[in-house]
């Protein structure tokens, strides 16, 4: 192990942390789940800082970091949806968008050209709203009741940004694929 491996190790630990977060949510230990969720968020910032600041970026880290982030978010959405704390239609919209983006990226990579993905601004906003919604729902469920208007606003904000960002990704990458053309087999 070298110092440059620290960001990847942090990402792996964040990926492993999904298991206790899910368990804690399932047993209604919302305070502990929220604490671990926040620690995972801080670790995401830490591994990104270390990788960029010290030049410890790697191809593996470029895959592990978003995988850990998406796994945590999607698993929390699934569990909180199953517990009835987030509407099922929003859980399905979030998962459908992510599957559409991943499926489109794989198709583009193999049939058009190598994908050089960069998140669009509305996608970054969507991720922020998803995180805020999860924190708010977990807080409301077990720590302190929050106003209904806050939760409703976050739910609808997530839905709007899920739809808009998903549509933008299809538009942007669809146009690139048309302009580039299919690879010859």
From TrEMBL:
Pathway note: Phospholipid metabolism; phosphatidylglycerol biosynthesis; phosphatidylglycerol from CDP-diacylglycerol: step 1/2
Q: What is its EC number?
A: 2.7.8.5
Is the keyword Lipid biosynthesis assigned to this protein? yes
Q: How does it sit in the membrane?
A: Multi-pass membrane protein
Which Pfam families does the entry mention? CDP-OH_P_transf (PF01066)
Record's subcellular location: Membrane
User: What GO terms are given for molecular function?
Assistant: transferase activity
- Does this UniProt record's set of keywords contain Lipid biosynthesis? yes
Primary location recorded for the protein, binned into one broad class:
membrane
Q: Which UniProt keywords apply?
A: Lipid biosynthesis, Lipid metabolism, Membrane, Phospholipid biosynthesis, Phospholipid metabolism, Transferase, Transmembrane, Transmembrane helix
Tell me the superkingdom of the source.
Bacteria
Reaction catalysed by this chain? Answer: a CDP-1,2-diacyl-sn-glycerol + sn-glycerol 3-phosphate = a 1,2-diacyl-sn-glycero-3-phospho-(1'-sn-glycero-3'-phosphate) + CMP + H(+)
Segments crossing the lipid bilayer: 12-40, 71-96, 125-143, 149-173
Q: Which InterPro entries match?
A: CDP-alcohol_PTase-I, CDP-OH_P_trans, CDP-OH_PTrfase_TM_dom, Phosphatidylglycerol_P_synth
Query: Which PANTHER family does the record match to this protein?
Result: CDP-DIACYLGLYCEROL--GLYCEROL-3-PHOSPHATE 3-PHOSPHATIDYLTRANSFERASE, CDP-DIACYLGLYCEROL--GLYCEROL-3-PHOSPHATE 3-PHOSPHATIDYLTRANSFERASE-RELATED
**Family, similarity comment:** Belongs to the CDP-alcohol phosphatidyltransferase class-I family.
Can you name this protein?
CDP-diacylglycerol--glycerol-3-phosphate 3-phosphatidyltransferase
> Which organism does this sequence originate in?
Thiorhodococcus fuscus
């Amino acid at each position: 192990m070298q110092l440059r491996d620290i960001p990847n190790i942090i990402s792996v630990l964040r990926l492993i942390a999904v298991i206790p977060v899910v368990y804690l949510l399932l047993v209604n230990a919302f305070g502990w789940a929220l604490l671990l969720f926040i620690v995972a968020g801080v670790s995401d910032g830490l591994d990104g800082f270390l990788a960029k600041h010290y030049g410890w970026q790697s191809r593996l880290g470029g895959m592990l970091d978003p995988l850990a982030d998406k796994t945590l978010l999607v698993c929390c959405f699934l569990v909180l949806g199953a517990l009835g704390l987030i509407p099922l239609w929003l859980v399905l919209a979030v998962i459908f968008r992510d599957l559409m983006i991943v499926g489109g990226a794989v198709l583009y990579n193999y049939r058009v050209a190598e994908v050089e993905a960069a998140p669009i601004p509305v996608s970054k906003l969507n991720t922020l709203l998803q995180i805020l919604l999860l924190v708010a729902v977990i807080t409301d469920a077990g720590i302190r009741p929050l106003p209904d208007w806050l939760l409703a606003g976050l739910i609808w904000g997530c839905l709007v940004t899920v739809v808009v960002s998903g549509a933008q990704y299809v538009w942007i990458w669809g146009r690139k694929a048309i302009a580039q053309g299919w690879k010859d087999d």
